[in-house]
Specification:
Mean pLDDT: 95
Number of helices: 11
Oligomer: single chain
Radius of gyration: 19 Å
Number of strands: 12
Low-confidence stretches: none
Bound molecules: NADP nicotinamide-adenine-dinucleotide phosphate
Strand content: 15-25%
Distance between the termini: 20 Å
Structural class: alpha/beta
Length: 290
């Protein structure tokens, strides 16, 4: 347990809801291991209060930085003094640090998403991608897939207006002309040629724990070399990943993304290499107990 005193620098994760977040466990384990005078708190802040909350945090002299989760990753951007090039390209910020000039925001989700994929021996330039969902995390996934050099990115969503906006914004920000958006009804045809399928919807976690964005019949349409990547990390094996495993497909859950985006955020704040193994053990321990 971190010893909190007057000199302790504060970090936090801001979101609504916030109770599901494992970031405090992961970061406080790292802080304790490094023996640094920091503490990491979960802060539940609703969307309409984000601006006033961030203004308040700026007035707390020992507040060093924060992460953002649902629904704040885009709304935070106009409230910052500076936004890094990667966060601008993605159009979302998940990590903010106090500097002498004000708050600076970056995005570590893209690198986190890529971490497990970079270990695989794949020809990404021959790997078309299907992304399920078109929210904040989907933007980081698009940026990651562009970095890998994937030739075609299909984004599937349930709201036509949001899908069109997603396409316009992503195309403007990332200059990606190989991005197409589709309704769920088109999914079966897309799956037949997919090399990587990424679930960025919350189906499979929380109240939707028994849900899956793909049915047992849809999973059979994927080519045998396809990878199924679920950004959900709790539970570690979602219904979608169970279906993928049953079909003999490669599967990845969201735990490694969580871990790597967290490690990079910690390094951004404290400028010390993150103890990634300690952070991983802390996450695994809490998930085993869950
Ligand atoms: P978000 O901005 O709220 O986006 C969620 C997307 O899923 C939206 O496109 C939403 O559609 C769609 N959706 C929600 N419920 C659906 C349903 N029942 N059927 C079909 N589509 C549905 O959330 P986010 O920040 O992108 O996060 C999405 C998921 O990724 C969460 O489970 C989060 O925990 C996970 N995540 C994991 C990591 C990690 O480190 N592993 C990092 C970031 C996010 P509408 O817009 O039409 O509502």
């Amino acid at each position: 347990m971190t010893h909190i005193q007057a000199t302790t620098k504060l970090l936090a994760v801001i979101g609504s809801p916030i109770s599901h977040s494992l970031s405090p466990i992961m970061h406080n384990a790292a802080i304790a291991h490094l023996g640094i005078d920091y503490a990491y708190l979960p802060l539940e802040i609703e969307i309409q209060n984000l601006a006033s909350a961030v203004e308040g945090l700026a007035r707390i002299n020992n507040f060093a930085g924060f992460n953002l989760t649902i629904p704040h990753k885009q709304e935070i951007m106009p409230l910052l003094t500076q936004v890094t090039a990667i966060a601008q390209a993605v159009g979302a910020v998940n990590t903010v640090k106090r500097t002498e000039k004000g708050w600076i925001g970056t995005n570590t989700d893209v690198a986190g998403f890529l971490a497990p994929l970079r270990k695989l021996d794949r020809d990404w330039q021959k790997t078309p991608v299907v992304i399920l969902g078109n929210g904040g995390a989907a933007r980081a996934v698009v940026a990651g897939c562009l970095e890998l050099g994937c030739p075609m990115i299909h984004v599937v969503g349930r709201d036509q207006t949001k899908l069109q906006q997603f396409q316009q914004q992503v195309t403007a920000q990332m200059h990606d002309y190989n991005l197409r958006v589709h309704a769920w009804a088109s999914l079966d045809t897309l799956l037949e040629v997919a090399g990587l399928v990424v679930n960025t919807t919350p189906l499979g976690m929380g109240k939707d724990v028994l849900g899956s964005p793909l049915t047992s019949s849809q999973i059979t349409k994927l080519p045998p070399q396809a990878i199924v990547y679920d950004l959900v990390y709790n539970p570690r094996q979602t219904k979608l990943l169970q279906l993928a495993k049953g079909q003999g497909l490669a599967e990845i859950n969201g735990l490694e993304m969580l871990l790597h985006q967290g490690a990079l955020a910690l390094e951004f704040w404290v400028d010390i290499p993150a103890p990634i193994k300690i952070m991983q053990l802390a996450l695994e321990e809490v998930l085993t107990r869950a």
